[in-house]
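Service request form, structural biology core

Requester: graduate student, group of Dr. S.
Request type: structure prediction, single chain
Budget code: on file
Notes: please return the result as structure tokens.

Sequence provided:
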Amino acid sequence: MSTRRLVLVRHAEAGSAAVDADRPLTAGGAHRATAIGAWLADNGMTPARALVSPARRTVQTWERAGGVAPVLDPRLYDNTVEALLAVVRETPDEVDQLAVVGHNPSISVLVALLDDGQGDDAARRGSASGFPAGGVAVLDLSTPFSTVGPGAARLSAFAVPGSD
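Core staff response, request fulfilled:
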């Protein structure tokens, strides 16, 4: 079986709004979201499918990052690991690279839950140090998305594109 790749993205920096779901990206967040797209393309990680929280900031992050049209799933806005896992497990078998654009703390907790501890040490330190807005974690899976669970992935990269 070929390796599948799960790309977990925390939305870029957002401003304020009267309703949390309406918070837009800041100018810096828009810059970082564009940098996320460039980083993914430069590293050969252009997802075949993108699952995105319907919150304005996550939609704007993925729109600027580019790539496939997003599939909006309100469960991602719930911001729970259980919701993220449920959405990932529904991914069709033919998808080999999946992006999930969501929120903290669920994104960083999911990385820690799935990581088998055998991956890149620098990536693990980076993802464990607060997982900043616009952070991207890349996990390699040797199982189908439908069976992903604790310790089932190898953390191969972590970056905060556009932060330099």
